[in-house]
Design goal:
Layout lengths: L2 E6 L2 E5 L4 E4 L4 H12 L4 E5 L11 H7 L6 E6 L4 H14 L4 E5 L7 H7 L5 E3 L6 H10 L10 E5 L2 E4 L29 E2 L2 E2 L19 E2 L2 H15 L3 E4 L8 H14 L4 E6 L6 H9 L2 E9 L3 H6 L6 H14 L2 E8 L6 H16 L3 E6 L7 H4 L7 E3 L14 E3 L2 E3 L5 H9 L8 E3 L1 H14 L21 E3 L2
Parallel strand pairs: 1-4, 1-5, 2-19, 5-6, 6-7, 10-13, 13-14, 14-15, 15-16, 16-17
Antiparallel strand pairs: 2-3, 3-22, 7-8, 8-9, 11-12, 18-21, 19-20
Helix pairs in contact: 2-3, 6-7, 7-8
Length: about 475
């Protein structure tokens, strides 16, 4: 094989009572890469870490064993929550496979590629951005032992210096790239069947870690191309329910109506879930989505305070959120609303406005999902924060999107076992690499708001048995003690 490609994008939660909750999603990013590599006549050894049956999989020794007999090039894709695990494991991996070239990709290392290469000598190359063009070129260049200077989107070492090559131009025509390599995986092993209708988002929300990855540009696929892919997945692999993973899929009422019309024309009897901007739906589009199988719509509300919404450049108001969430609930069976709490400039009065709106939504029968703010290196909010002296690591609290899989949790709170203390020390010693694990002003900003959320049962306290973020049994593969 030319490359061993490892998917380390996953959801895995361990609980204090011994329960393990895990959800395996189709690894779309790696599958897109596999299609591009195959198209370039390159061979791929694909390994999906999501599918490991063990309960304690986030140990360097387990990843080491998982990589036995790799190809000369090992590519690992991870998100920010598992970036510490990958980097923590690198000394052992490089010692075991010294002749292999290790390439790190995915969204995890975004905006800190240079710092990682300066600190982690065992890592050879970091790739940033879309890979359909640059990754096959990288593999061919490494295979032929040529200079890396003409490979876009990569960071690497040369003559004692770290080099950043120019970025490739974004792929504007998403219909021109091959579909993910669905024939290389067993669909029955995955709970969630993802699909992408677009790439990127043009909105400048300061907290967002996704839009910067795509340079705040959005490109969409033709509705007919999306529906053809859905039809293929349905007829060939038996998929009956789809999850659109792109945050900007429902980008306007016009786009929603176009997609619904194409789906209706195909006479495809399936169900789907989708994210949408709450200010980009109307009654006609919501009705059309519902009539073509949309069973769940997900809105990023973020805050019920107009002051905070202005500060984070969300470009909407709380009145719009209230009106359109209520409208969506009339037509769509399940409506999810995502809130972010803990913004550094969010006062308790601001937060009370969010809490009031969350309570109102819950009264409508809408699912409310509060999430602790996550500061990732590529976000505008983090980059513009000049005073980081109040950033703190809390040994019993992590943002929902930074679950590492080794801590034991009850809702948002956690406990760290003694054997994993060195791992969390590694995180604390590298705050600039892993800022998502740190919070701004625990005493005055975070803990008072957490207490309010627990008081109104939006988070589960240690002595309770349910909470807004607790997954239900039908959503996850569960392993008992």
């Amino acid at each position: 094989m030319d490359i061993t490609l490892v998917n380390l994008n996953m959801y895995f939660v361990r609980y204090l009572d011994g329960m393990v909750l895990r959800q395996s999603q189709l690894p779309l990013g790696p599958l897109y890469l596999i299609s591009a590599l195959h198209q370039a006549s390159l061979t791929v050894d694909f390994r999906d870490y999501q599918l490991l049956p063990e309960k304690n999989i986030f140990e360097p020794e387990v990843l080491h064993d998982f990589l036995q007999k790799p190809a000369p090039i090992i590519g690992i894709s991870c998100m920010a929550n598992l970036l510490p695990f990958v980097l923590y494991s690198m000394p052992m991996l490089k010692k075991a496979y010294p002749q292999s070239i290790f390439v790190l990709g995915g969204v995890g290392p975004m905006a800190i590629e240079r710092q990682i290469l300066e600190r982690v000598a065992e890592l050879d190359i970091i790739h940033r951005g879309e890979g359909e063009i640059s990754v096959p070129l990288l593999v061919k260049t490494l295979k032929e032992k040529r200079s890396l200077e003409n490979v876009p989107n990569i960071f690497y070492r040369s003559k004692g210096h770290i080099v950043q090559n120019p970025a490739a131009k974004r792929i504007a025509d998403l219909a021109s790239i091959p579909w993910p390599a669905y024939d290389t995986v067993d669909f029955s092993q995955y709970f969630g069947h993802n699909i992408l209708g677009s790439r990127g988002c043009p909105y400048p929300c300061t907290f967002c870690s996704i839009a910067p990855i795509w340079d705040w540009k959005s490109y969409t696929r033709p509705a007919e191309d999306i529906v053809r892919e859905m039809s293929h997945m349905h007829q060939t692999h038996g998929v009956k329910e789809f999850l659109f993973q792109d945050e900007f899929f429902i980008a306007s009422p016009k786009r929603a109506l176009s997609f619904a019309a194409a789906l209706k024309k195909a006479n495809l009897h399936i169900e789907y879930k989708a994210f949408a901007r709450v200010d980009q739906v109307d009654e006609e589009s919501l009705q059309a989505l519902a009539q073509t199988g949309c069973k769940e719509i997900r809105f990023g509300i973020e805050s019920g305070s107009d002051k905070v919404l202005r500060e984070i450049q969300k470009k909407l108001t709380s009145d719009i959120s209230m009106r359109n969430v209520a409208l969506a609930k009339r037509y769509i069976k399940e409506v999810d609303t995502f809130f972010i709490w803990g913004f550094p400039t969010e006062t308790l009065e601001d937060f009370s406005e969010s809490l009031f709106q969350m309570i109102a939504f819950r009264g409508m029968g809408v699912r409310v999902l509060p999430s602790l703010i996550t500061y990732l290196p590529q976000t505008t909010m983090y980059q513009e924060m000049t005073d980081r002296s109040k950033f703190e690591f809390c040994d019993f609290l992590l943002p929902e999107y930074m679950i590492t899989g080794v801590e034991k949790r009850v809702s948002v709170k956690m406990e760290i076992e003694e054997k994993h203390i060195p791992f969390f020390h590694f995180i604390q010693e590298n705050q600039d690499l892993f800022p998502g694990f740190f919070q701004y002003d625990l005493k005055n900003n975070i803990l008072p708001k957490l207490a309010m959320l627990e008081e109104f049962d939006f988070y589960m306290a240690y002595d309770k048995i349910s909470g807004a973020h607790e997954p239900t049994p039908d959503q996850f593969v569960m392993q008992s003690r």
